[in-house]
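Continuing the series of single-chain predictions for the mutant panel. This is the parent chain; the variants come on the following pages.
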Amino acid sequence: MKQFQFLIMASVIILAACNPVSSEEGVVKIGFIGAMTGPIAKYGSYEAVSLGIDDLNAAGGINGKQVKLIAEDGKCNSNDAVTAVNKLIHVDKVKFILGGHCSPESVAIAPIVEENKVIMLASITTSPYLSDMGDYVFRTSPVNTHQVPLIADAAKKLNLLKLAVVYEETQYAEPIAKALKEAFPKDGGVIVMYESYVPGEADFRTIVTKVKNSGADAVFLSPQSPDAAALLLKQLKELDVRIKVFGNDILGNSASFEENKVLHEGVIFPGPLFDEDMSDTKDFIEKYKTKYNVDGLPFGFWTAEAYDGVFILADAIAKHGEDTEAIKEYLYSIKDYDGVSGKIGIDENGDGIRTYKLSIVKNGQIVDYTQ
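Parent structure:
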């Protein structure tokens, strides 16, 4: 166990005498909401959180009690997430929820946790719609519209001034597209096409044909599902659309990239800074690979931050018991937390503080993009 995790886990145990936890006998209950089935399950949030809980319990749990994870499948849609959060709060009586683990889940459950004064700590959740949804609503993720200036600037420096935009109709994907539509026309850019599709769409040939006929010299793709990302790229190739492709951070994630490296070649996309060579991060990745018999993290930074959420919440409970008011203030105070996903801060809106960068796929590898 590396240094930062050792210190966190040690503090969880040492603080037992000062902050008894009043959960059910012998355990601390923590809820989980995330996609456990369906295409968004490929993000690996449930697996990362489960691994974190295992590590935490192996080190003694929280205040001497083992942690019981009560997991509900949010399926990355609002209806299932609402059903899940109501069960966790009213049946299981949890005071803390890790989740949602995608924007449609998190935006849907936020008003419910706020009304019931239950702490939620979301990950893999970047929609700007979450920022003003309450004092009990937190996330480790940054707001996704912060990536838009990087995309717009990169396109213009390549003299690509006519842009087609295609996006999935979700709380994650649409705000990025909307922000780009507003930002790109500044300094001479033109949006020549702005087209959406519904979640679950599997045939993009009509949209791709419109892109091809739009006169665009670049296209920006903003999917939610990694399956949609792969299909969009595949059908762009099949219809011989030979223009530069930019994407949101889903487009470059390994859940879609690893099986479709040729399709991703040349794609430029943003994402938070993530150093897989940090010793703690390498340790986490190796444990994840071993436990789940995989070659790497399915969603890179985003899978890692779901794991970090376990230890941030555990540290808060260790320090403040089940006092949700005190834990709320503690979470607002986090500014420079060392996680396996990198440095984590939380701002006055409960949003994660992260730094975005651009990457590009070159020769089948994801590398930093420089101009």
